[in-house]
Amino acid sequence: MGRGKIAIRRIENPTNRQVTFSKRRNGLLKKAKELSVLCDAEVGLMVFSSTGKLYDYASTSMKSVIERYNKLKEEHLMLMNPASEVKARELESKNGLTRLAQTIAKLDILCIIAT
């Protein structure tokens, strides 16, 4: 016979809430580790307690997981909004032209000084 269902709502008693948090946090961290080992998945998990304490797990390094997430998120946003990719390329072109103009100006100054 299994356990009864519980209502998913905030636990009012602070002691019970903390005990439940600790048990569920440990279970969640264990599942994250199992997922990374069994499926060779790159896993990053961060949990903040109500007091602000950080609990984390990363199968490789948290920094690499976050960098990979951010990179894929940016690529996904560009795919979803092609106009943003065009704007990004325009911005790169403008920055390149600005650097080129600055270089030409410096060369002009050097030519004037040399003569």
From TrEMBL:
Instruction: Extract the InterPro entries matched here.
Output: MADS-box/MEF2_TF, MEF2-like_N, TF_MADSbox, TF_MADSbox_sf
- What SUPFAM superfamilies is this protein classified in? SRF-like
One example of the protein's molecular function in GO is: RNA polymerase II transcription regulatory region sequence-specific DNA binding
| Localization per Swiss-Prot or TrEMBL | Nucleus
- UniProt xrefs under CDD domains: MADS_MEF2_like
Q: In this record, what's one Pfam family?
A: SRF-TF
**GO CC field:** nucleus
List each copy of the MADS-box domain by range: 1-61
Swiss-Prot/TrEMBL keywords? DNA-binding, Nucleus, Transcription, Transcription regulation
Give the protein's recorded name. Answer: MADS-box transcription factor 23-like isoform X1
Which organism is this protein's natural source?
Answer: Senna tora
Q: What is the lineage of its organism?
A: Eukaryota, Viridiplantae, Streptophyta, Embryophyta, Tracheophyta
